[in-house]
Amino acid sequence: MTEADRRRKRSRQEEREDSNDESEYEPEDDIPPKKRRKVDDSDSDFEPEKASKKTSKRNAAPKAKAKAKKSKPRGLTKKAANEFKKKMNGFVKVLAKMVNRDWHDGYEEQGEQLQEYFQYLKEPAMCVYEYVVKGRDYDKLNEILKNMADTWDNIHAIPFRGGVEMGDTDFDLELTEIGVSKNFYASPSTLISFMWCLMLHGACANDDVTDEEIHRYIKDAVDNDVDVL
């Protein structure tokens, strides 16, 4: 073998050694490995939480209000009591205008208006009866009765040509708790006295009504010519 062949053989042998060294190359410790997202073992069993069904405030509010209304019994409102007063005073004003407009010949028309007034008194009278049965709102019932008496007194103050003539008119008041129908004929005074006595009996039998309140109711009744005994 010539010297040139030996050099070529040595050179090929060195190349093979170099290639073996490159295949066994490991990165140095100071070079960071490629970053990977760390995944815990618990992540493999993860299930997303199901969205809970939310109740809209718009739908929930009416339900809450409905429950509140059911739990709280509705009593006689001041507005309702004042409405009776307003309508009764309206009859007085109309009658006064009718007399001023035609004092001499308007008595028939005025008599018809008086009958309408009497028929209307059934509404506040029924209200008084219903709330006496319920055993509540006696202060408002007393005010309604005072307004009934006041309007009847004010009608008597109107200078009718032939006096206050109610004519032929009546109505029945159904006393449902005792199954009785009481007839009232052309006399607001009789109706007012009966309803006031009924209210006083209910108030005296109610433990929630104080003696002071009962004394005030009795005084108002007596001041309006009601025979409470």
Characterise the protein shown here:
It is a single chain. The chain is mainly alpha-helical and 229 residues long. The chain is 59% helix and 5% strand. The protein has eight helices and two strands. A hairpin with a 4-residue loop joins strand 1 and strand 2. Helix 3 packs parallel to helix 6, helix 5 runs parallel beside helix 7 and helix 7 packs antiparallel against helix 8. The radius of gyration is 49 Å and the shape is elongated. 17% of the residues are buried.
Briefly, what is this?
The protein contains 8 helices and 2 strands, in the order H-H-H-H-H-H-E-E-H-H. The protein is mostly helical.
Break the fold down into its secondary structure elements and pairings.
Blueprint: H1 3-23, H2 57-71, H3 78-101, H4 107-120, H5 122-134, H6 138-156, E1 170-175, E2 180-185, H7 188-204, H8 211-223
Antiparallel strand pairs: 1-2
Helix pairs in contact: 3-4, 3-6, 5-6, 5-7, 6-7, 7-8
The helicity comes to 55-70%
Strand order of the largest sheet: 1-2
Low-pLDDT sequence parts: 21-44
Q: How are helices and strands ordered from N to C?
A: HHHHHHEEHH
Distance between the amino and carboxyl termini: 158 Å
| Total DSSP helices | 8
- Report the average pLDDT across residues: 82
Tertiary shape = elongated
